[in-house]
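Researcher: Structure prediction, please.
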Amino acid sequence: MWVFLAILAVPLIEIGLLVTLGGAIGLWPTLAWVLLSAGLGLFVLRRVATDGALTLRQDMAAMGDPLSPLAQRAMLVMAGILLLLPGFMTDALGLLLLLKPVRTLLIGLVARRMKIVPMRGSPRPRSPTEVIEGEWREVDDAPPPPRRDKPSGWTQH
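Model: Predicted structure follows.
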């Protein structure tokens, strides 16, 4: 129910803000703001996409924790998407997410609320010194050659 109300409320708030602030600052500055924020959103998304693989590898090597750099990237993508959407509220949220201290604070808040729950039927965690014995055999990854002596079953003969 709350999700439905949020989905309904966001466009209504955006329309109200566009009409109110657009009436206060004028049509052309409002249109310029919407276009500039969309351009900034595209720039952020393109930057995350092009620099993502290289800087993500460097960040993960430097920090040790793989979730923080991934969460930072996800929040930058959210900021780009929010900036692409027309409206003052989504632009304000997108601009806030561009600030690293705000992203770090949000990641910390979400991380505190998360709890790791083992899946049902998952094996218990093992100590690093525990040895698991078993038999193994090497499997060739190459697929077998196709058989030509009978039809594939996909056609009618």
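Model: The CA atoms of residues 42 and 80 lie 6 Å apart.
Researcher: Thanks, that helps.
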